[in-house]
Structure formats: C-alpha cells, structure tokens
Amino acid sequence: MTVIEETDTSVAEIGTLIRGARQNKGLTQSQLAERLNTSQSAIARIEQGSQNLSVELLTRINRALEADLLSIGAPRASHLRVTGGQQLSGTITVKSSKNGAVALLCASLLNQGRTRLRGVARIVEVDRIVDVLRSIGVKVTWSADGHDLDIVPPAHLDLDAMDADAAKRTRSIIMFLGPLLNRNPDFELPYAGGCDLGTRTVEPHMIALRPFGLEVVATSGAYHATVAPDRPQDIKVVLTERGDTVTENAIMAAARHPGVTTIRNASSNYMVQDLCFYLDLLGVRIDGVGTTTLTVHGLADIDSDVDYALAEDPIEAMSLLTAGIVTHSEITVARVPIEFMEIELATLAEMGLRYVLSEEYPAANGRTRLVDVTVKPSELRAPIDKIHPMPFPGLNIDNLPFFAVIAACASGHTLIHDWVYDNRAIHLSVLTRLGADVRLLDPHRLDINGPTHWSGAEVSCPPALRPAVVILLAMLAAKGTSVLRGVDIIARGYEQLQERLIELGAQIETFRD
C-alpha cells in the first residue's frame, strides 16, 4: 500500500481540504465516517493532519465527497471558472483574522503553559506556522471540529530541526525573533518569504529589537541572531516605522523582559490589539492599547493555561463587502470589526454607497466591537481626493486594493496611491484585462476611470494575495465566463472563499488542467 507522507501538499493541508469539502457537502464527521466505513475519530485525525493517508483511502474520500481533493503524482495548480454578472444575496460571516492568528501562534512560544486559540481560520499561512512550530518540538493540536488550536511548547525548543521549507514560504517567520530572544542566546531563522510585493526591508525589526540586546547577521540563506546578556531593566524603543509586525515583535520581546518597556510610534492596528489582549490573559500588563505609545510590564517567566478567541478580520470583511458592491447586490456581512473599518466605510459613503449598520455587539474576546453591515445597490461616484492608506486609524493598507475594483465601478477618475509597496499597483493594473480603464502612473499610483463595462477574460493570478482576490471579485462583476489561473495563493489568507461566495449565489467552479 502506498502511503502519502512527504508530498508538495502536507498531510495537514490535505486534512484542511477534506474538512472544507465535507462541510461544503453539509456532512458531519460521523456521516463521512459512515460513508467510508470508518470511525468518527479517524475522520477527526485525518482532518487534523495527524494521520497518514493511503492512495486507496484518498480515492475513497474523493468519491464520497464527489471532489478532486488531491491528484496523485505531480501537483496540479488550481484554477477558477467564474460566470459573472450574477447578483448575490444573503448573509456571510467574517472569519477570524489571518494576521492575528499568525501573531498569536508566534506569541504562544512566550508561554510555558497551554494556549488554546479559538476560532482559528484554516488557511495556508496558519498551516505553515503550525508546521514550523511542530518541527521545533511544539505540540500543536486541532480540535475535533477543526476550529480551535491547542499549543504547548516544550521546555527546550529544537531550533536546529526547524522546517526550513515551511519557514521560507512565509514572511511571518521574522516574528519568531521577539519570542525567541528571551529563550535562546543565539539562534538561526531562514530568510523570510511571503507575497511578491517588492523589497521589504527587515531593518525596522532590527531597530525595534536591538534595545533588547539582539544582533542579527545575514548568513547564507539565514539570519544568525545573538542576544547580549546585559540590558537595562527599563527599555525605551522608538520605532522608525509604525509597522504592524515590527510592533508585534517589540511587544513579544518586551513580554518576557522582566522590566518596563516603553514602545513609541507603535502600531495600534487590529492584530496588535489582538496580541495585547492575549498577553493580558498571560498576566503581562500593557498600558496604552489602541494608542501609539505602549508600556509593557514584562514577566521573566510565563506559565499559564489560557483560552483566547481571535477577533474577526477587517480585511476579509472588506473583501466580502466589495463582492456585494461590485455586483450591485444587497448582502449582509456579519461580524464586522467596526473600529477597523470606519474610515473605509466613510470613504465608501462619500462615493455614494448606501449601507446599513446594526447595533454594536461584542466579539467572543469581549474586547472587539462588531456590527453587521448590509450594503445596497448604489450608483457610485469617484471621490474628490485620492484614496491612500495610512497607519491605523487610517485606511488599512491591505484594504486599499479593494478600492481599485470599486473605483472601476464608479463614475469619474479615481487616483489610488499605494505608497507602501513597490509592485502591488502593477498587479492591480491587470483589471484592464476585464475591461477596466486603469492607467499605471508609476509603481505606486493608479488612475482609474469608470464606470467599467466588465467583460470576461482569462487571467493568471497575480503573485500577491489581495490583488488576486481583487481580480476574482472583478470577475464576479464581469458578464460572461472568466478564468482565473493559479489561485493557490488565495488560500494563504482566506478559508474557503470561493465556496462561501457560492453560498451567496456566485457561480464559481474549481478545476485543474
């Protein structure tokens, strides 16, 4: 019997695919087990990625779910066939934050006790970090329903055994620096990867962490880190860049520093607040959460069993709202973290979008404010001023790409200024393939003239997460049939996006060559 143990698709990723296909069919684990003549616990182990799979079992699972979950042999890229011009309807719920999950997975290394993260999105980026954690000795276990993660670090991490392949495929590995510098006097991390968005220096991270004694030398394919033993009890950090991951790295370094750390020019974005709320449960007091000055009262040792429910993702919320806007549909997006969407909604209101907000209610973490947003078909107009991102509480940098496809639906000229990334505006210019009038003024600025008479086309998926989703959303608006090729990057940040859009009435088919 041939067993799949080492393939380009990990056993954990296969488990995620099986779980998603099962849920899409409306089956429980017990019902799938009955079809396969096995036990519910066996299905749970498969979906958790803790059981190797034979070719014969994979074939039976494919047949039971009427799905092509994994081709045996050379991996084949996934593509989407979209029949656009359909109005959507119904309610769709925002899932938890990708960026919040990644930060908390890294932060779990600060705790010697058990961390239970509730409501974790099953996305590739999470799976990669989980693979890295498991490779260095951390016990990571998915709950039977696949929603929660239990994380228990060992007394000593085996950093030499780190899964370099998984680490290199995510830029989030750079966020191991903060948690590790208080555990290891010297260690190595692989070079950080992630989306193709141009040059993104790691120097801001170095500036944030040098006050804690960290020095990093780039060697062949890795960062070699050393930590000086002596440091002052009270540390002051001034960030030269108000970056989210930079701030998180500084916070995680401060959490295990037995003194008081003041961090100025800190990001107060959603994933940073999620991290602070989690550390509060661990006993780390942080003053100034939600502001640009944080005071962290660190602890030399942290050993607590805690449960934390991740907050909802404002970037996914914007993605889903955009789906309704560009298809001229009335849909309700539930569980929107309104504190991190107010500028976006205000900008959309200036463009003529009609929408209704529910009363506010608390997220499962008891801290984040949520609303349900119902968007209505609207005649949009270009804004008077350019649309550009700013650090929170400004318009989120990851939400900016969605305004490109929205602007293409509005009457008049819109200037989109993406000053952060070198290449992302270039990726967004691909909207011209679907009929949009988009002029690339320079690597950071787009002039978009609408309204667009969208038409179907075949497009290769951009090598960046948000532009890839923007192209997919434009295809929902385009009459006729479109094909988006090589869509695997979308799974990096979204859980079952196309299946959830189908539930709203979108016509999307997944296929492989």
Topology, element by element:
Layout: E1 3-4, H1 11-24, H2 29-36, H3 40-48, E2 53-54, H4 55-65, E3 78-84, E4 89-93, H5 98-107, E5 115-118, H6 124-135, E6 139-142, E7 149-152, H7 164-168, H8 177-180, E8 186-190, H9 203-209, E9 214-219, E10 222-227, E11 235-238, H10 244-255, E12 260-264, H11 270-281, E13 285-287, E14 293-297, E15 306-309, H12 314-326, E16 330-337, H13 342-350, E17 354-357, E18 361-362, E19 369-376, H14 400-408, E20 412-417, H15 424-428, E21 437-442, E22 445-450, E23 458-460, H16 465-477, E24 480-485, H17 497-503, E25 507-512
Parallel strand pairs: 4-16, 5-15, 11-12, 23-24
Antiparallel strand pairs: 1-2, 3-24, 3-25, 5-7, 6-7, 8-10, 9-10, 12-14, 13-14, 16-19, 17-19, 18-19, 20-22, 21-22
Helix pairs in contact: 1-3, 2-3, 5-6, 5-11, 9-10, 10-11, 12-14, 12-16, 14-16
What does it look like?
This protein is α+β, with helices and mostly antiparallel strands. 31% of the residues lie in helices and 24% in strands. The protein is built from 17 helices and 25 strands. Strands 4, 16, 17, 18 and 19 form a five-stranded mixed sheet that branches. The protein is globular.
